[in-house]
Amino acid sequence: MSMASSWIGGTAVKTDGAPHRIVNPATGDAVAEFALATPADVDAAVAVARAALRGWSTATPADRAAVLFKLAKLADENAEALVAEEVSQTGKPVRLAGEFDVPGSVDNIDFFAGAARHLEGKATAEYSPDHTSSIRREAIGVVATITPWNYPLQMAVWKVLPALAAGCSVVIKPAEITPLTTLTLARLATEAGLPDGVLNVVTGAGSDVGTALAGHAGVDLVTFTGSTAVGRRVMAAAAAHGHRTQLELGGKAPFVVFDDADLGAAIEGAVAASLINTGQDCTAATRAIVARPLYDDFVAGVGELMGKIVVGDPHDPDTDLGPLITTAHREKVAAMVARAPGEGGRVVTGGEAPDGPGSFYRPTLIADVDERSEIYRDEVFGPVLTVRSFTDDDDALRQANDTEYGLAASAWTRDVYRAGRASREINAGCVWINDHIPIISEMPHGGVGASGFGKDMSDYSFEEYLTIKHVMSDITAVAEKGWHRIIFTKR
Ligand code: NAD
């Protein structure tokens, strides 16, 4: 079962770091074993990425697009294998991997293959009478990317594809507990014709390989998706070299239900949006803020529906909810839920782990939470929804914004003016109206505040990987330029 941990210079590489096992969190069984990468492998990967940069960045947009379209086709053809890997390493239900993670990734690859041929800029023109000015958009260079375990393939694709489309070369470090689909992506990219060294994967621990990559002198941009605490460490490491960063960090999304909302739709939406990926989703609904007149019915409805959720074998298409990523993470979630009643919360349903193997945890609803309580303020990253009531619209929006995070939010109302006010006044990278979770390749994803900065997906993310160069050409052909007389006069 021993496999290669990394993909460097167009081939699988067996590294010689510490022995490591990929574990299926639904069963506790080992899925794969390998030796982790080391900081020396990071040096090797950055060196080949640097060497490959010139060729790839000077390939025509059409040539880059052709390779990336081929990659989208190969990813689609290998969808079943990608789903199997994603399910076994994360424990996510096969319906989620098969209908969201993998097709969403294929669509994103396809989108960026097209984006490669759509470079935007200002018109070339004579903005001064003596010069022609033009804009060049150039690949930023070698990109270091660090990704989390919750959506391993999608998070890799969101970072790697705009970089490749822009002409950058990449070294990516996936979370060491979920590297399988990222390694497959790199292998398929090579099969699609991506030149060796343009996309490299180093699977190592955050503490050494992650640190080495984030603080590497030889990269030009560090893009990161993960927790706010680690993201800030990554930013500090990159800052030592003055390198640019792009950070997609944690979230604590509000889910605001006004008194004119369709209550049934809000209940369905709250259950789906809080339980997606077992709540291990940075945009998941975590703080339901509900108008006082609807509060009791909302709590009863969500509690009842959560009680019907099928928790179990992720490979079974009838399963709704898989396990949490590790038993250690389940302990963290369980401990936060256990502390909630001491801070005023009322556990309506869930709040326990089912018997048997695997790191499962039941869907959990906690009502009447205090706005200073840990369960309400801190990221739980589990199948846990908290609920509070509000008195009027000002109070609702104040509560929605009472968080350091600003990744995503939703407002549920049939009043167009309330919807408009919520979308203007809630501080978040995305505000949904009467829905919560959907994403689309054409539209950006990214937060404000403690949720980070910069965008994934859409043309906006393409911009992260391009520099803007101004070329200003003299059109007078005279040695003695008019402006020289400001500096000196000829005597
Ligand atoms: P994490 O921050 O623990 O780890 C993320 C990655 O960073 C992993 O690859 C890890 O090995 C690496 N890492 C750890 N320490 C490092 C260090 N010192 N230097 C460099 N790299 C290091 O996050 P996680 O537990 O894997 O993922 C969950 C977190 O990710 C949650 O906070 C979630 O909200 C966030 N997330 C955000 C988004 C978004 O788009 N904003 C998307 C998915 C997940």
UniProtKB/TrEMBL annotation:
Keyword Cell membrane part of the UniProt annotation: no
Listed Pfam families: Aldedh
Name of this chain's protein: Gamma-aminobutyraldehyde dehydrogenase
NCBIfam families assigned to the protein according to its UniProt record, in alphabetical order: PRK13473.1
InterPro entries: Ald_DH/histidinol_DH (IPR016161), Ald_DH_C (IPR016163), Ald_DH_CS_CYS (IPR016160), Ald_DH_CS_GLU (IPR029510), Ald_DH_N (IPR016162), Aldehyde_DH_dom (IPR015590)
PANTHER family recorded: ALDEHYDE DEHYDROGENASE-RELATED
UniProtKB keywords: Oxidoreductase
Active site, UniProt feature: E248
Keyword Hydrolase: no
Family membership noted in the UniProt record: Belongs to the aldehyde dehydrogenase family.
Domain named Aldehyde dehydrogenase: residues: 19-471
Domain of life: Bacteria
